[in-house]
Amino acid sequence: MGSLQTDLSFYLVDKYALQPEEILIPRLLNEIASGPLRDEWLTLLIDQESEKLNQELDVFLSNVPVPMFMLRLTRNSSFYLNEEMNSYESREEDSSVIELPPQKTGVMIIVTSNARYAWPMWFPLETWTTPSLLIISTFPCWNKLYLRTPLAQRTRSVVLICPQMASYPKPTGRFVVWTWMPFAVKRLIKLGIWNPNYFREFNDLFVDRFKDMTKKKLPIYGMNEDVPFLFQLYPGEAPRGIGPEILKTLSQWLHFNYSFTLKRTVLWTDFHDRMSNGTNELSINYGPQNAETYRYFDLSVSYYHEGHIIIIKNPPPLPLWQNIILSFTRTVWMVVLASLIGTAIAYHLLYRRHRSSFIMNSISITQGLLAKSMEAVPKEWHFRIFLLVWWICSWLVTSFYTSNLIAVLTVPVFPRKIQTLGELADSKYR
């Protein structure tokens, strides 16, 4: 049961949801189940006191095109559930042995008329977590209240469908589709009016709310001597450690910025206070993780999982003779060689009437890279301009090479360090 509940959808029906729009709810559910959710596993959570809506839903359940798991709930009960399978009388499957196929993700769906009675939104069970949440409000459309409940805030993709009101309290018979983007400038986003022809696929209805953080800046608080998680070797330098490396990768992926506030000594109560009052949204540290910590904070790594570190001695510097080659990269050397060959061929084709030896013409061009003057300069001006351009390029190349050679002779060059486990597997330390 627990594994099945983790990925299934949920419906909550309240006995006060008896507005005129209720007669359209079964049709709306049928359009959703046969449209964007046709490949998903569904579960129906029904308030047993909602007799009228239950009768309407019975018609929907008898014609639903996808398998559906149904849960009945009394509003004043303490999570007392009576489990049933959709069309259980005509189906041969045993609900106790049904397993979710790996390609089905599941969607949690809540149908209610009043957020006060939808207790799964305020006190969600851990076994009911799901990547997607669909809320259907019969009346009224409290979009901000629904989309800011604990269950909605912790779910990756959230959609709210509620009736469109032309003038209170007259309904229009149409439903509006909303979502909540926590990092956008305008968080409450209207996706449009519900139309099964428009919302055909799963991705048409559900969007990833945490795909991009729109360059939001996160203040980070920590202790600068917490090796290896977060530390500074010298005052004023950029923080180092596992935490900054993880943040660097995450910021490039999710597009956010961050700033550090580091102190030499920090108490855990200070960490918790700053996180609770919103001064800091993220902290890098380790410490006692108990039930109380898990209740108020989202921790990235379990305390019961041991970490590991790979330590390899720094390699010795490269031999000095390689400095002659390392002054330029391989690409630069290829460009210089190609330019030398191309210029020598072009000069020979232009000057072959005066000197037919390709070797002598190539030597004349090579003298530019060696900073050696030519014994005789051609009298024709187009030859002189050609050689002038080549000598200027040669002078720039030799200047850059000399500067880089001085740099590599001053600072020893080391081989590139191993950065990933894949490089470690391919190295001699395997």
Structure notes:
This protein is of the alpha/beta class and 430 residues long. It folds into three domains: 2-205, Rossmann fold; 216-296, 3-Layer(aba) Sandwich (D-Maltodextrin-Binding Protein, domain 2), CATH 3.40.190.10; 320-410. Helices cover 34% and strands 18% of the residues. The protein has 15 helices and 13 strands. A hairpin with a 7-residue loop joins strand 7 (170-180) and strand 8 (188-193). Helix 2 (25-34) packs parallel to helix 3 (51-63). It is elongated, with a radius of gyration of 35 Å.
Short description:
With 430 residues, the chain is an alpha/beta fold. The chain has 15 helices and 13 strands. The chain is elongated and about 100 Å long.
How far apart the termini lie comes to: 44 Å
Count of discrete structural domains: 3
What are the secondary-structure elements, in order, as H or E?
Answer: HHEHEEEHEHHEEEHEEEHEHEHHHHHH
Query: Which second-level CATH architecture of the largest domain applies?
Result: 3-Layer(aba) Sandwich
Number of strands: 13
The largest β sheet comes out as: 5 strands, mixed
Gyration radius, rounded: 35 Å
Helix content: 25-40%
Low-confidence parts: 1-20, 76-104
Q: In DSSP terms, counting alpha (H) and pi (I) runs of 4 or more, how many helices? A: 15
Under CATH, the topology of the largest domain is which?
Rossmann fold
How big a fraction of the residues is strand? 15-25%
On the 0 to 100 scale, the average pLDDT is 72
The general outline is elongated
Instruction: Briefly note the structural class of the backbone.
Output: alpha/beta
CATH class annotation of the largest domain? Alpha Beta
